[in-house]
Amino acid sequence: MKSNKKIFGALTIGALLVSTAYAGAEESDARPIKDRDDSASVPSVTVSATRRNASLQSVPVAVSVLDGDTLNQANRSSIDTIVQEVPSVTFRQQGGNKDTTIFVRGIGTISTSPGVEPTVSTVIDGVVYARPGQATLDLLDIEHIEILRGPQGTLFGKNASSGVLNVIGRKSSEQTTGFVDASWYEGNEKRVRAGVSGTIQPGVVSASVTGLYADFNGNIDNVHAGGVKLNGYDRKGVRTRVDITPNKDLDIALIADYVRSKASPSFTAYKSTAPAFNAGIAPVVAGPENRQVNADIPSDIRDKNKGLSAQVDYRFNGYTLTSITAVRDWDNTQYTSTSAIGNAAEVSRITAAFPATRDIGTVEFSQASQELRLASPKGEFAEYVAGAFYLHGKDRETYQRIVNNGAAINSGRADYGVKSDSYSLFGESTLNFSPVWRAIAGARWTKDELSYDHARTSTQTVAFPGVQPAVQNAGSTSEDGFSGRVGLQYDISRDVNTYATYSRGYKGPAYNVFFNMLNRDTLALKPETSDAFELGLKASAFDRKLTANLAVFNTKYANYQANFYDTVAGAVVTRLINAGDVSTKGVELDLNARPTRALTLSASLAYTDATIDSFNCPPAAAASCNLNGKPLPFSPKWKSFTRANYALPLESGLIVDLSADYSWQAKTQYDLFQSVDAIQGAYGVINAGVALSSPLGGWRVALVGKNLANKSYATNLVTSTGYVTRGVPRDDERYFGITARKEF
Is the pTM higher than 0.85? Predict the structure, then answer.
């Protein structure tokens, strides 16, 4: 740990002296090979954080930007893998995709319930994804990702009370182009992407198609099956976009995407506190670096994610009217086990303390959304964006648990569903008092309607380990809420501007709908609200050889919707409650420098103090609730990311790129109840690569090394009676790979 701190300190100090870093600043290396930027300055980045295109350095919002090609080259192709590059963001996965959670500034909602919306909104090509699990598969043909930090309830609204992941896909090109890129990594991980783009009718219609194939055997050995690998995936997908411009005032974008995935996410035994557990998992030995399980029926997660959207932009008299219409479907099937001994079929491995369980769950989710917004002309005293938004979601789920205690096999099954409708009106205006003074003011009204039904059957009339008796209930609720933002922005000089904002966040009501739902879960949770203050500074210097962005924030949440760990029928469950009041405050620094044409340096650093201020202990709680003043889970106080890239031109016209990055985070508590067994110590991960490319030939070949220091760590630690299990990341140990790209 001391050596990690020394490395972290040296890299951070070096970055502060000469460097940079909105994450993803390596644009010179990541753009299409034929379009490399050879200027000796930091490239200007355009973002849509204010719902109209503007320079990253000019918007009064804390934003991180990740380049799509850079992420692909670094083998970071999905949301769970990009978090290393953004210090303010963390990610939690437990089991399948529907159990995922994104945290921004330490705030996120952990729940498997379809009756709650996430705290961080995921928006892809302008379409809001209502469930976080929809967006955990590979991202296809991405231009860049904007991560808006802090409440964004005014312009993005739906489930954006702590931040937004705004994913921007590539447009079709008028010139006929194509590419193929492929990569292979140790562990037999393979990825192939190919795409073509071009004009169908010159000046009127262009289109693009991108396909993906990716698979990975996994990095966990299942000793029960003779060493078969787990924790891998198999994904296939395609994205098609058609851009139509009938005249100079009208743009139409039609987008269709489809991704199919099969995965085997697995947790390993991290620590044992009971001899019976050791006997149950033998010959596997629990340990911090354990990458083995003994499972006769391993986890199997299958997803299908598809959608259609149409965006229409109509310009008249300087105004732009935008309509985004979308439908999406997500089907998910999960075969998992809550038994750490691996759902053993052999009676000799089953004990009363550790019964073998098998869970089978299905999700059928569909959504339809419509957004209309009007953007005023630029350059006026009052510039504004105003609009309306509607989203309808429908979810149907089944969940079956089969329990074998060595003497008998019992089971329970629940059928449940949720319907939701969200309506909102919004608007935000910028008042240009002078060339250097501006005021920002906006508000959003939201109405949420939510209903659910739930029915559970059981082979027993009384509770048995992991299953409650039969029950049936239903309910509905409706709430109105307001969110908004006000602030001031002042340009100190042409290259330096500051801003101060206050934001009011709102997240709608929720129901805790899940397999072991009890009567005490039938009451609707109150909406979650937040009050956020932020000060920011954005600057560039030395003819844009250096940019620096600084944000200081303090946000308080009331009626925070969080998971309370409880025991139901002998099984640990995550019970969603209005947990009380929490807060997050801290400082974020992004630097980005290009001292020469060849050298690009970047660094980003975040200090986040996310704390439970006042915890509401539920009646009949099975655990201690003395949590006031404790940290929120999945929220390291310090986290940083640093990258360096050096492009060496050769006399032959080829270019050698040398790159390295280092991510570091302080110790992290994964358990709301502050278990000492759920603390991941501070760790750092070093990656490096060397590439040879030809701008004229349009090709690139690279050798990549991941986790060069061979540091094992956990992405999650789950405590239970007698044992602790560990989430094993892809880069839990050192591995190497080769990537290649050809453009034509």
Answer: yes
